[in-house]
Write a structure and sequence with these properties.
The chain is an alpha/beta fold. It has a single domain (5-118, 127-146, 160-249), classed as Aldolase class I (TIM Barrel, Alpha-Beta Barrel), CATH 3.20.20. Helices cover 43% and strands 16% of the residues. The protein has helices at 16-31, 48-55, 81-86, 97-102, 107-119, 132-136, 140-155, 181-198, 202-205, 219-223, 240-249; strands spanning 5-9, 38-42, 61-64, 89-94, 123-128, 164-167, 207-211, 230-233. The chain has an 8-stranded parallel beta barrel, surrounded by 4 helices. Strand 2, helix 2 and strand 3 (61-64) form a beta-alpha-beta unit. The termini are close together. The structure holds phosphoenolpyruvate. Phosphoenolpyruvate (PEP) is lined by residues 9, 11, 96, 168, 173-174, 211-214, 232-236.
Amino acid sequence: MKKHLLVANWKLNGSIKMISQYIKCVKSCLSVLSKKNIIVIAPPTIYLSEIYKNLNNIDIFLGAQNVDINLKGAFTGETSILMLRDIGVKYVIIGHSERRLLHNETNDILVKKFDLIKKLNLIPILCIGEIEKNKNYNQTTKILIEQLNCMFQVLGKSVFRNTVIAYEPIWAIGTGLSADPKYVQFIHKFIKDYIAQHDPTSIKNIIVQYGGSINAINAEEFIKEPDIDGLLIGSASLDSKEFCKIIAIAE
Ligand code: PEP
């Protein structure tokens, strides 16, 4: 099977106690695998350093769940991309539907974040996706085009080179109702073709992953599809054994 990007998004969960046990479990699972996949753990910001210490230079990457649009200054409560880079973060998730809906993360803000992450040589994971009503009215591709176009319009046609797009239909996140893998394959192909229309070169180095109620039972059906390059896993990634099973399935 090809190489996949597997990202564990812990959301607002985790503890110091959980971290050592979790990393131990993932390390031991990786020790018997080929290590061709890219594994990323994205805990709440406060635990990034603790995870980094526990990783001890092994092949697991650190991901952040958010970043501010400012580099430094009077922005109480925020975390800058310089700080994330300083503590070993490589990937930054932006535009998660929970942040779009609950924290007013607009496309304009996301363009700034995306640009900053790339300028500092980290890798953005841009989440895009439609609500159930859009899907029912066949508006999915229209919504995705809007979310992609805001990047093209401001940052140019090669904006998606060396980046990650996470297709996360909002109706599938945290609901236990994952999308149909064939439907996801169709959408991923659409996303890649749309990006290729702007910049054919992007296609060689863009990763399009799926997120939405993935678990150890359904992961294989997604992983098998040619244009599903990885998975963004929420709830199921909180259980280290389940996350390890998903890693093993993607081998
Ligand atoms: C997510 O948080 O990005 C996600 C896909 O969550 P879940 O796997 O719980 O649906």
